[in-house]
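Step 1: inspect the first sequence and its tokens.
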Amino acid sequence: GECTGNPRQRMATDEKHSNKIFAKIRGSLALRSLTKEELTAVFRAITAKLEAGETAYLGVLIRLLTGLESNIVCALRWGDFEEITDYGIYHLAVARQVTNDGETVRGFDSLEDYRFLPCCKLLTTYLLKKKQETKEALASSYAGSIRDFPIVIASGEKARLQDYEVMLAPTVLERISREILSAAKLDAHMVTIPDYQKGSKETNLTHYQ
């Protein structure tokens, strides 16, 4: 018999499929790659902030070295950073994301978005250092595990346990990522794109490779 339906029409009207295609189109707005000199400038700008105690910039470093979006980076927890003992390397488990305002944590629509990312030696060094600093800072007031604590938290003095439990909002990470690009004298390539979940997306470090 003849096919009377149009499978492509069904795909076009399926909201989940449309959202997936939308995300792929949005993610394809990569503009260019960093040169060696630009990468060095960006890295120096980030490390200067980290050495000054600006903890939020660890999120920018993670973005630079993994290519992950802010919504995913901000949702990372210390339990996601684990050693693969057989190989002596570390990886990050990508298992969740958070809305732009940092209020709602949720999973992904596609199974392919759940994944493990190996960490380069440089990122591993910074994450291990920050993890140890966090444990030492909490030693006198907290004896539990920090597995469920966010890796990326706000900068500034931290006097309470709660200061280590609140993740940085992706909108803040987007802003300081642009600051780093500006400090490294790079064009931030600002393009605001609607986000079907909440708010909007703006081009940022993920659009440099």
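Step 2: inspect the second sequence and its tokens, then contrast the two.
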Amino acid sequence: FPSHDNTEMSVANVLTLSDQANVESRLEALEDQDVIFGSDLLQLTSRVDSIQSCGSYYKSTQQLASTGSTDISFDTVESWTDAGFIDLSGGSGTVFVVNTAGVYHLDAIISCNANGQTWNAGSGKYFAIDITRSPDIERGVLVSSTTLASGLGWSNQVSGLVKLQVGDVINIRQTVSLTSAGQYQILGAVAGTLDKNTEFQFQYIKT
């Protein structure tokens, strides 16, 4: 009979092989599926070791956001970002363009200072990764919403696996209904090496 230590090692190896087969099977399913959420996403992103490229973009200055929808602008690229996959396009800082097709894990984080403003508490505050794929119009593909008492600062995060095509356009958008025109929230900017406040990240998984 194997020793106790060898038994634990054998079980661990079996679980690892089983998990790997499960991950590979789920990734193959993406050929016919554009987005995966929930526990499937957590298992895939924690187990897959075949990620080839990644990147991160964040804000160096705060941004005012009025009532309605606001595309978040980004002006800083992390030094370790791999170019040629999802790149910031043009001078506005709000448009990302996909230059390499494949399955990606997208993740966006927002931090918002209420700035003393008030909003309709019953309406949701929406945070989304929008994608435009010609000839379709811009659509919120990964969306999170929350309701919050008026006047409070808030933060949110949205993420998921998406199969992207070359030429797809990505915008990070927040939507809120303020009680009157001329009011502005403040979208947070970088506050430290590891504290970005508002950030967009990608990981390239497979073709």
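Step 3: confirm your contrast with the notes below.
The chain is about 15% helix and 40% strand. The radius of gyration is 20 Å.
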